[in-house]
Specification:
Elements lengths: L2 H14 L6 H11 L11 H19 L1 H11 L5 H27 L1 H5 L5 H22 L15 H11 L9 H11 L4 H23 L1 H5 L6 H29 L6 H20 L1
Helix pairs in contact: 1-2, 1-12, 2-7, 3-10, 3-12, 4-5, 5-8, 5-10, 7-9, 7-13, 8-9, 9-10, 10-12
């Protein structure tokens, strides 16, 4: 992988990890479309992608530092009684929502790893992701509830359900943020709250994956400079991810009635065109 290729993938990952369009799917599809000779089944490719996610996690920690600081103080009992109860409740909800993807990812690791280097499957899952987003928007528009809920009002069942939706993103082409936002919408919270919760639960999942995969970049007998290139790419991905987060939080607050639709149409079109190209090329 050249430095230019690494930086292109880093920018792409930083933007698409938080947009509901699947960063992993794009990272698998784009090199094939551009004719890059990358070994996507090689020992370094997945750890490299996870290293980029580490930059995204850092960006999320920085953007939502007030949330994490309040959660830390509240769980240490250093705030007033109401905020202590709320902080402990939210932290428990984040833990519950993280469990499904962590358990399924560990149990199915070897089966899923084979899919990461298969561009055609990623393109097909990208199409499925588009229909998933449309499904979430349309079903959510039914008058099931008249009042939007806050994150703190979620129940453990709500958190577990959202976590199960998140586990769909173990498939390349299915967006983690998109699946969790859909899960949140179906549990009665609006786009902004669903995105907020999605971005919070992304942090422990990404950090856990990084702790597992990044050491492989140091001990896989890779060419000199591979880890340094991955680290620089991670920094680029983090800067782009921070800007993406700031944009998306404003976007979701201002477009609550149809916020996922543009991303859904993009995923369907991009996935269909990519799949067609892979089949005829």
């Amino acid at each position: 992988m050249t430095a230019i290729q690494a930086m292109v993938i880093a920018v792409l990952q930083g933007a698409t990890e938080l947009f509901p369009v699947s960063s992993l799917g794009h990272a698998v599809i784009l090199p094939r479309l551009l004719g890059w000779q990358l070994d996507q089944h090689g020992t370094a490719f997945l750890p490299f992608l996870v290293m980029l996610h580490l930059g995204t996690a850092a960006a999320l920690l920085l953007y939502f530092w007030r949330d994490w600081w309040a959660l830390a103080l509240g769980n240490l009992g250093l705030l007033d009684a109401h905020r202590v109860r709320e902080s402990r409740r939210i932290l428990w909800l984040l833990v519950i929502a993280t469990i499904p993807a962590a358990v399924l990812g560990f149990a199915l690791e070897h089966r899923l790893r084979a899919l990461f280097g298969t561009p055609l499957l990623a393109a097909l899952f990208l199409i499925a992701n588009g229909f998933l987003l449309l499904f979430g928007e349309r079903l959510r528009r039914r008058p099931l509830t008249t009042e939007q809920r806050a994150i703190a009002s979620l129940t453990p069942t709500d958190a577990l359900t959202i976590g199960l939706w998140q586990s769909l993103a173990l498939l390349p082409g299915i967006s983690r943020s998109g699946a969790t936002i859909v899960g949140g919408l179906l549990r009665g919270i609006d786009h902004a709250a669903a995105a907020h919760f999605s971005f919070l639960i992304a942090t422990p999942i990404i950090l856990a994956a990084a702790l597992k995969e990044v050491p492989k970049l140091l001990h896989a007998g890779l060419p000199a400079g591979t880890f340094a290139l991955a680290a620089a790419s991670s920094l680029v991905a983090g800067v782009v991810a921070f800007a993406s987060t700031a944009f998306l939080m404003r976007y979701f607050r201002g477009h609550d009635h149809w916020a996922l639709d543009p991303f859904a149409y993009y995923c369907i079109a991009a996935g269909a065109l990519s799949a067609a190209w892979f089949l005829i090329a």
